[in-house]
Design goal:
The protein has eight helices and ten strands. By secondary structure, it is α+β, with helices and mostly antiparallel strands. The strands form three sheets. It has a four-stranded antiparallel sheet, with helices on one face. Strands 1-6-5 form a three-stranded antiparallel sheet. A three-stranded antiparallel sheet has the order 2-3-4. Strand 5 (108-112) and strand 6 form a beta hairpin. The longest helix is centred in the middle third of the chain and has 12 residues, at 124-135.
Length: 214
Amino acid sequence: MKIKHWMTSNPITVKPGTPILEAAKLMRENQIRRLPVVDKDKVVGMLTHRNILEASPSAATTLSVHELNYLLSKLTVADVMRKDPICVNPEDSVLDVVLMGHEKGIGAFPVVDARGRLVGIATETEIYRAFVGLLGTKDQDSMITLENIDLSQRVGAMSRIASIIEGRGVPLLAMFSLPHRRSPGFHRLYIRVHTKDTAPLIQDLQAHGYTIGD
């Protein structure tokens, strides 16, 4: 799955010189929490709702409302944004973006093309929708899990499994793997099929030597 199919295209942006109060209003009116910061067609930062909160005076301050608004009116996006954010390419896979976000503790990525121009934004919301589309089973769908699959040594392993499933005339909706936490070097394979009667499929897979997981 490519991130380009799940990102929000043509996102709302701000410039480095945009006043913080104006950026906060944009977030509030559009019900968003992140704004890419663009200058001369290049992404130079990312402004989050948290950045704005951290820049605001504490609730315990003795300043008056007038004084607070005056201080905030002097701040621009450039004063509080996260500079030089990590960007991703539209062709990057959703899984790669998820892993990068987990590794670096980032919840949103600007998506830029080969020229560095902003074409979208990928946040936890879009990524969540992507995985719900992959994992979520509808009324007539089921998920089958295979344990201890060695994908590094068995070329065509996934295509053989797909052939077994299709041999039963069952539509194969999705198939993906994740590293097995208890068996280093092996994967757990998740198979989404369009049927509730999985018993014949499980029997076929077991007959070919596959171990069915929970």
